[in-house]
Specification:
Layout: H1 20-34, E1 46-51, H2 57-68, E2 72-76, H3 89-99, E3 102-106, H4 110-119, E4 124-126, H5 134-148, E5 155-159, H6 164-176, E6 179-183, H7 192-202, E7 208-211, H8 214-218, E8 223-226, H9 238-244, H10 252-256, E9 263-266, H11 278-281, H12 288-306
The chain binds phosphoric acid mono(formamide)ester and norvaline.
């Protein structure tokens, strides 16, 4: 029977917190959890959820993942805890890590997440920051692997904002040696440091391509991926971004320029007819709801590793 492995890092704050081997092991465990081939029980373990931003998938998939491995969760947010009153992160982290066995945190700044991790005696998981969404990327690559069986020759094209989701896809792509193309409007490129880190991992392979041309970027692509144009916390930029992102919608025309067997991914929630059309979401090429389901399986696997 496949067993969880102890990860080399205590925390999962970034897509680069696992090695390629650890990442693949988590995907393998997740597949076995999904196929009900694993019966790992982590009785009485408690996951603390701290969500400074809204969530449907991440919150519920963590709650269900934890209950499936025999544990429980507590869910905190700024309005029902002292976090909103401004209690210092270092105090919250020290207290909650005495009650809980692991913490999953959704917040704005990556540096705040890192501060939680620094003061927590227990593992901390990034449940989304402005910089990264590494649990999402685990599910994304699980979904890609289900479709194409391995990552050889897979070309992943992300159309839209160079945001947290794009950053994590880039880092995972580098880790796995997958060609990643990003097509975004000028000025909305992914984080510079993320690009630099990814290029260092890719070494001399020219597999990370950033452009402002969606049509060229999707040529021969096997996976088309998009996300909202204005992320949580960017509500005031919505109107401007709607104008700047015209031409960056995944529609049937763009899909017809990709590989004929290409699949469509979106982390959700989606704004239909902005970053993606309704017919593409509902098309037979869409794996969007499998992808959402896989959040639960990869997080079950991640928790099993972090708690083992
Ligand atoms: N994809 C994702 O993280 O969704 P939620 O914001 O609903 O958690
Ligand atoms: N980029 C989006 C992802 C939501 C899951 C956001 O940060 O709001």
């Amino acid at each position: 029977m496949l067993n969880p492995i102890k990860l080399s890092r205590k925390n999962f704050l970034s897509s680069l917190d696992t090695s390629c081997e650890e990442f693949l092991h988590i995907l393998e465990l997740a597949k076995n959890f999904k196929n009900k081939n694993l019966n790992i029980k982590l009785k009485e373990k408690v996951l603390g959820l701290i969500f400074d931003k809204s969530s449907t998938r991440t919150r519920v998939s963590f709650q269900v993942a934890m209950s499936r491995i025999g544990g429980t969760t507590v869910d905190l947010n700024p309005t029902t805890s002292q976090i909103g009153r401004g209690e210092p992160i270092r105090d919250t982290a020290r207290v909650l890590s005495r009650y809980c066995d692991v913490l999953a945190i959704r917040t704005f700044k990556q540096t705040d997440l890192e501060e939680y991790a620094e003061w927590s005696s227990k593992p901390v998981i990034n449940a989304l920051t402005d910089l990264e969404h590494p649990c999402q990327a685990l599910a994304d690559f699980m979904t890609i692997k289900e479709e194409f069986l391995d990552f050889k020759n897979v070309i992943l094209t992300f159309i839209g904002d160079g945001n947290n989701v794009a950053n994590s896809l880039i880092l995972c792509g580098a880790l796995l040696g997958v060609e990643v193309r990003i097509a975004c409007p000028k000025g909305y490129e992914p984080n510079d440091l993320v690009i630099k880190r990814a290029k260092k991992i890719y070494k001399d392979k020219n597999l990370l391509k950033i452009s402002n041309d969606p049509i060229t970027a999707v040529k021969g692509a096997n996976v088309l991926y998009t996300d909202v144009w204005a992320s949580m916390g960017e509500e005031s930029q919505k109107e401007q971004k709607d104008k700047d992102f015209l031409g960056f919608t995944i529609d049937q025309n763009l899909v017809s320029n990709a590989d004929k067997d290409a699949i469509i991914l979106h982390c959700l929630p989606a704004y239909r007819s902005k970053e993606i059309t309704n017919d593409v979401i509902e098309s037979e090429k869409s794996r969007i709801f499998e992808q959402a389901e896989n959040r639960m399986h990869v997080q079950q696997a991640l928790l099993a590793c972090l708690l083992s």
